[in-house]
Amino acid sequence: MYNTDAMIIVKLNETSWRKWHFDENDNSSSLRDELELIREIHEARVREVVVKGRIARRYNTRIRERPLHKGDLVWRKLGESRKGKCKGKLVAN
């Protein structure tokens, strides 16, 4: 009458592999190991940030900042790396 299908719900009492092999002692020791790994990963990331900061500071000490003004001469790269406006995929049809 209403174009609906009947559905029969079936319940099975089979336990999953996870429930069958669960051991609370192993679980708690695994959780402790994972917490230790999380701490180690955090310490490694902190060390990584510190080292990257040192590298950036050392690199930036070698660079001399020179502000450019209108009318200054600037070295331009020519050749394949600097294509004209009439080449490439962004050319007008």
- Contiguous helical run count: 2
Q: Give the termini distance in whole angstroms.
A: 61 Å
| Element-by-element helix/strand order | HH
Question: Multimeric state of these chains?
Answer: single chain
Q: How many E-type strands?
A: 0
Biggest pleated sheet: none
Rg, alpha carbons: 33 Å
Shape: flat
Mean pLDDT: 83
Strand content: under 5%
Helix content: 40-55%
**Low-confidence stretches at least 5 residues in length (pLDDT < 50)?**
none
Structural class call reads: mainly alpha
Question: How would you describe what is shown here?
Answer:
With 93 residues, the protein is mainly α. It has a domain of 26 residues. The protein contains two helices and no strands. The model has no long low-confidence stretch (mean pLDDT 83).
Secondary-structure map:
Blueprint: H1 17-20, H2 24-62
Task: Give the structure's gist in a few sentences.
The chain has 93 residues and is mainly α. It has two helices and no strands. The protein has a domain at 37-62.
What features would you highlight for this structure?
single chain, 93 residues, mainly alpha, 2 helices, 0% strand
